[in-house]
Amino acid sequence: MRYFLLLLFICVTFNSTAIIAAEDDPFSAPTEQQQNQAVDGLAAPMYKPLMERYILDELRAVRQDQQKLREDVTKQVTHAQLDTADRAITYTTDTINNVFFIITATASILVLVGWNSLRDVKNKVEDIVNTRVSVITDEYEDRLKILEEKLRVRSEEILSNQERISVTNEVHSLWMRANLESDFANKIEIFDEILKRKPEDVEAIAYKADALLEINDTTQAIELCNQAIEIDSDYGYAYWQRACAYALIHEHADALADIKMALDYSPNLRNELLHESAFASLHDNESFNEILSATSV
């Protein structure tokens, strides 16, 4: 816009200069140099006031827009506050009216059903309150009983877990003692202590049977192996110990049957076939050698 006004002003000035020159000398047209001089002489003094006027007009327009915007915002805020106050007053009025309506309706109902005195109202209210309190009390008593039962069960579980942890720690300590003990009689005593704490520990039973075999008590060792197999029929080491006991008393058929069962349940025992001294009497047995051949393959 500013450049357009400047261009317009230059054109008007140029035309005015041409007209003046034409009036002075109607028979001769102004030269280009004269025109440029006229423009340079007139543009400087008239251009600056025009720009100042344009800037002042723009500033004034901006100030007026700001004032108008401020007025609009003030009006909107005022209307919003008034609307909020109106809603609050309306809500309060409606609430009070509803309360009065409820009171009036309640009084009318009381009159209709025959409660004509405050004493009747008081007695009825007391009965309702007592009934409600009794119901709530019974409900909370039931909840407290359930909670007490859960707490009791939880306490028993905690005590049981603590007892099991204590037994586990004791058993672990006894196992460490048994592993360090070189005397087989002392080992048997340690395994007895373990079985006192965990009577159905098939591993302790099997290792006790192993210790009994070391002192040539094959009969009791076989009984312990049978006990371990009854508790856990998938425990391969129990079959292995019973096979050792049968091999020591030269019951080779039973020993071979138990070796096969032990290898089925615990394949890692295959590496111990040649190193087990109790199987020395089976080295010439054909079935035992077949098992060894299958193991080597």
From TrEMBL:
Gene3D superfamilies given in the database record: Tetratricopeptide repeat domain
The record ties this protein, via NCBIfam families, to:
TPR_END_plus
Q: Which SUPFAM superfamilies match?
A: TPR-like
Keywords assigned: Repeat, Signal, TPR repeat
Q: Which organism is it from?
A: Pseudoalteromonas nigrifaciens
Name of the molecule in the record: Tetratricopeptide repeat protein
- SMART domains for the chain: TPR
The keyword Repeat appears for this protein: yes
Signal peptide: which range, if any?
Answer: 1-21
Per the record, the domain of life is Bacteria
